[in-house]
Amino acid sequence: MKRHIGVQALLGTAMVLAMCVVGNALAGAQAPVAIDSARITINGTSNIHAYTASTTTVHVTRAQLAGALEGSDFWAYALKPGGLDAFEVTIPAATLTSPREGLDANMHKALQVTEHPDIVFRLLRFEPRTGPAGALRGIGVLKIAGVRREVALDITTERKHASLCVRGQVQLLMTDFGITPPVAMLGMLKTDPKVTVTFETVLAIPLT
């Protein structure tokens, strides 16, 4: 059976990426980390209309720093290349929703939420990149509906006192995850296989 609304599937995937990178780093540190806010959005187009889907639910399932925290600057240590030894983030696929009527059911079916309830992102490493201050590239493995692919996303980080704001976006192809772009209305509606995933999250170390 062909998997439809691959767009949404991808959205979950990429969304995980950014949040994972930040959230995991925090969890593995010597201080607790909380997600003040988070939103991951996927945007796609067809020859008839554009569509969008999003979620605010992200869970850090694994996080570990590469070594003992050096000094008191937790954020600087966690986000530097080699600062994280391991981290993994999951997003419940069923939490992805769209304001367009009838889209959620097709999206969840395409994501196989019963057989594969979570979209998972496992960070492999950070790489430096040119750009504004706080620019990084996260390389990791993204799993959607049971299909794993290595992905790279560009992010920017902004320090706000004890909090860290992380923003970014990544473009994905449904076909890279074995998803056939949806066709409807007897072939009159054709979905572009490319989708754009954007994310923004604010992480904080709670005061004790």
What are the SSEs and their pairings?
Elements: H1 6-27, E1 34-46, E2 50-55, E3 59-65, H2 74-79, E4 84-92, H3 103-110, E5 118-128, E6 135-144, E7 147-160, E8 163-173, E9 183-184, E10 189-204
Antiparallel strand pairs: 1-2, 1-10, 3-4, 4-5, 5-6, 6-7, 7-8, 8-10, 9-10
Number of helices, where a helix is a run of at least 4 consecutive DSSP H or I residues:
3
- Secondary-structure element string: HEEEHEHEEEEEE
Radius of gyration: 17 Å
Instruction: Label the structural class.
Output: alpha+beta
Q: What composes the largest sheet? A: 10 strands, antiparallel
CATH topology: Lipocalin
Q: List segments where confidence is low: pLDDT < 50 over at least 5 consecutive residues.
A: 1-32
Number of domains: 1
| Strand composition percent | over 45%
Strands, total number: 10
> CATH H-level name... which superfamily?
Lipid/polyisoprenoid-binding, YceI-like
Helix content: 10-25%
